[in-house]
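Following up on my earlier thread - several people asked me to post the actual chain instead of describing it. Fair enough. Here it is, all 268 residues.
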Amino acid sequence: MILPLIIFVNKITLVSNIFLSIFQFEIVNYLVPDAEKIFGYARDEAMGHHAIDLIVPDNMKTHVNDIWAALIDNKGGSRSTNENVTKDGHTIICEWYNTPLVIEEGRVIGVTSLVDDITQHKQAERSLRRSEKMSALGKLTGGIAHDYNNMLAIILGYSNLLKSALGQDPKLLSYAKSIDDAARRSAKLTKKLLAFSQKKSSNPYVMNINSLFKKQKDLLEKSLTVNIKIRFNLDESLWMTYLDSDDLENAIVNMFVNAQHAMPMGAR
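Reply from S.P.:
Thanks for posting it. Predicted structure:
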C-alpha cells in the first residue's frame, strides 16, 4: 500500500540572526490523493494552511508540538501515533512517519510525512482485548459457580433431611423450608453465572408477576430487619408477562435490600 505523502514547510521568524520556530507547519503539497480520503480536505483546501490548526485536535497540540520541536532540532526522523481530526469533525488515529528536510547549513526547513489511518486497526485491537477480558471473566465466573453449586448441593440435601425429621413441628419445619427456598434461589443464581460463563441466553416464559411476588414475600420478610414490614398492593387484573422469572426474582431482592439500606429506622 502506498501511504499518502504530505510536505510541511515551517514558518520561520528571523530575530537577531537567530531562527525561531513557531511550530506552525504549512502544508505545501499533497502528493498522493489518499490524503484527501483520510482527512476530507481537497488539495486546494489544505495548501497553505497550518497543520496544527487543520488536522490536530486541541488535546493533541502539545504532543504534536513536542514532535515538531524534536524534528526542528534535527534529531532525525520520527514515528508517532496520535489522534487527528477530519474535515467533518471525526476523530481518527493516524500513524505518522516524519523526516526532516535539512538544507546545507543544517537548518530544518520542513518535514515530509507519510501518514496511515489506523483507526480501524486500533478499534479491532480494543475489541480483541475486550473479548479476551470477557473470556477470562467467564472462566473465572464458571469456576466460582461450580464450587458454589457443590456447596449448595450439601445445603439442599441437609435441608431436605431436616424437613423429613421435623414433619411434626410446623414452626421448625417452616425454618427448614426457608433454608431450602433460599438455597434453591441461590442455585438459580449459580445457574445464571454458569450461563454467563458459557454465553447462554436467558429462559423467558409467560407468567403471572403477582404469583411471583406472593411466592417471594415470605423469603423477603425473613431477609429484611424486623423494623420493616412488607405490604403488597397487587393489581389482580394484571396481564400475563413474558420474562425470565430468575431475572425478576433477583431484581426484586435487590430492590428490597436497597430499600432496607435507605430506611435504617424501619418503615412499611
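The mean pLDDT is 76. That should answer part of your original question.
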